[in-house]
Design a protein that fits this description.
The structure holds two protein chains of two kinds.
Chain A lengths: L4 E3 L2 E4 L5 E6 L6 E8 L3 E9 L2 E5 L6 E5 L5 E5 L8 E8 L9 E2 L3 E5 L1
Parallel strand pairs in A: 2-11
Antiparallel strand pairs in A: 1-3, 3-8, 4-5, 4-9, 5-6, 7-8, 9-10, 9-11
Chain B lengths: L3 E3 L4 E4 L4 E7 L4 E9 L6 E6 L3 E5 L2 E6 L4 E6 L8 E9 L7 E2 L3 E6 L1
Parallel strand pairs in B: 2-11
Antiparallel strand pairs in B: 1-3, 3-8, 4-5, 4-9, 6-7, 7-8, 9-10, 9-11
Classes of the chains: A mainly beta, B mainly beta.
């Protein structure tokens, strides 16, 4: 079974631009969540989607947004990029609606903002 | 104070050693506990998943959960150089909609 797939693997953007990252979950998984990983803050939760509905959101500004499609694939968007948005963005999928199932991660998208 | 505390290391051990990695947490609502291994330039790879107090073994790995002490551990037996990576503990509560709270990660180096 294929794992979580994230595209692209690497991105370089300049301040003020916007970016869209894509995530394809494991087949059959309907929960998709996004995390930001930085050396200083570690892994931080961005948001989670289940059946196209955002159910939970972390403490990030409104510039960070996402959506989920009917096939469970998800995208996240960051508008008006700042230097501090440089990070590894990770997507995770889970089988269960809430709990009782582990999260599986993709290899992430490395975003560099210059 | 962070919800999940994990010693960032680094931890350096000789090949064949038993490694003990630990996390403490403050939120008693956490019910599901995971250990991930992350190699450089890769995403976290799930190693162990538990949801009750006690021990769970999988090959050279043993996960231990003590909910009364809010303490979880991961033991690696017969450590190998290929185990050199960052180990992350993570947990979430029912009703949290799969929102994982991570420890800072412990960097492990196993030298031949």
């Amino acid at each position: 079974k294929a794992g979580v797939t994230q595209t692209p693997r690497y991105l370089i953007k300049t301040r003020g631009q916007q970016v869209t990252l894509s995530c394809s979950p494991i087949s059959g998984h309907r929960s998709v969540s996004w995390y930001q990983q930085t050396p200083g803050q570690g892994l931080q939760f961005l948001f989670e989607y289940f059946s196209e509905t955002q159910r939970n959101k972390g403490n990030f500004p409104g510039r960070f947004s996402g959506r989920q499609f009917s096939n469970s694939r998800s995208e996240m968007n960051v508008s008006t990029l700042e230097l501090g948005d440089s990070a590894l963005y990770l997507c995770a999928s889970s089988l269960a609606e809430d709990g009782n199932s582990p999260l599986h991660f993709g290899n992430g998208t490395r975003l560099t903002v210059t | 104070q962070k919800e999940v505390e994990q010693d960032p290391g680094p931890l350096s051990v000789p090949e064949g050693a038993i490694v003990s990695l630990n996390c403490t947490y403050s939120n008693s609502a956490f019910q599901y506990f995971m250990w991930y291994r992350q190699y450089s330039r890769k995403g976290p790879e799930l190693l162990m998943y538990t949801y009750s107090s006690g021990n769970k073994e999988d090959g050279r790995f043993t996960a231990q959960v003590d909910k009364s002490s809010k303490y979880i551990s991961l033991f690696i037996r017969d450590s190998q150089p290929s185990d050199s990576a960052t180990y992350l503990c993570a947990m979430y509560s029912s009703g949290g909609y799969n929102k994982l709270i991570f420890g800072a990660g412990t960097r492990l180096a196993v030298h031949p």
